[in-house]
Design goal:
- The N and C termini lie far apart (44 Å).
- Helix content is 59%, strand content 10%.
- The chain has a five-stranded parallel beta sheet with strand order 2-1-3-4-5, sandwiched between helices.
- The chain has 14 helices and five strands.
- The chain is α/β, with parallel strands linked by helices and 292 residues long.
């Protein structure tokens, strides 16, 4: 199942009666939807075109055309059925030969990156890149596994001289968020989008006047709704601890895109800093006999 269809199936119970009717129509024949105009779909479902537009925007699309475009891109890699698709994530199985484990991990990671790429909104990505490039200060929030993703971004940003800190302690997240202001950016990572500590930190940062960005799995979540700019990774992982594997790779994929975009945007400023940090690290490694 594609990330969009998976999110619709997962969030169906939260929808209003009219929205649920629309979601069920999309899930029943997604391949037909990408060829239908908004008026035709509205008449078939017995709802207004305004309801369809609100529905699409609630899913973080710009409107119905944008929704169809992203759905068509996902279906191009699947057979269009809600039950099946290109993303056959594999869970941990007792006694699996090592060769199968290696192949399963490769398949999971590749599928996660592909599914995440199909969800990317280039406009939002560019907005985030621009925000980060001109930010006075950047706070990165993430708990548990999400803190690893935040820490990875921190290690990248600090090498190009961005004033940033990654916080995994809930008290320090709030303390730091309280001192943010206009011109600062708070970047929160949570796969579920519902981690209470991360939601509180981003809420506090927004109240302090900072621009806010979230990175969550695709779908409806508190953190995505709260953020000025929500970014999404694939939401297809299910099963034993799979969210700590493929989803982490998907989020790191987005982090790498943001970092590369920043360096490309301010190439003249950031490349010399990146090269200088590399030279300094190499100098002190050699000074200590190659030990890190």
């Amino acid at each position: 199942m594609s990330p969009i269809l998976h999110a619709l199936e997962h969030d169906k119970s939260k929808l209003s009666q009219m929205e649920r009717k629309l979601a069920e129509r999309i899930l029943a024949s997604p391949g037909e939807i990408v060829h239908m105009g908004i008026t035709e779909l509205a008449e078939e479902c017995g709802i207004s075109t305004a309801t369809i537009t609100r529905f699409c925007k609630a899913l973080h699309f710009k409107g119905y055309p944008d929704f169809k475009l992203k759905l068509a891109a996902e279906l191009a890699h699947s057979d269009g059925s809600p039950e099946t698709g290109s993303s056959s994530y594999q869970d941990i199985v007792a006694g699996n030969p090592l060769q199968f484990i290696v192949e399963a991990m490769q398949a999971n990671h590749l599928a996660s990156i592909r599914d995440t790429t199909s969800l990317l909104d280039l406009g939002r990505l560019q907005q985030v890149i621009d925000l980060l490039c001109r930010a006075r200060r950047v706070d990165l929030y993430g708990m548990a596994t999400s803190s690893i993703v935040a820490q990875d971004f921190y290690q990248k940003l600090i090498r190009i001289g961005v004033n940033c800190t990654a916080f995994a302690d809930s008290h320090m997240q709030i303390t730091s968020a309280s001192s943010l202001s206009s011109g600062d950016v708070a970047f929160a990572v949570s796969y579920s989008g519902e981690t209470p500590e991360t939601v509180d930190a981003l809420t506090c940062a927004a109240a302090s006047g900072a621009a806010t960005v979230s990175l969550t799995s695709y779908g409806s979540s508190t953190l995505a709704t709260l953020a000025d700019i929500p970014l999404f990774s694939s939401s297809l992982e299910q099963g034993m601890r799979r969210g700590d594997m493929a989803s982490r790779i998907a989020q790191l994929h987005i982090i790498d895109i943001l970092f590369t975009g920043m360096v490309s945007t301010r190439f003249g400023d950031f490349i010399p800093r990146l090269e200088q940090s590399y030279r300094n690290v190499q100098h002190y490694r050699h000074k200590r006999g190659g030990q890190i």
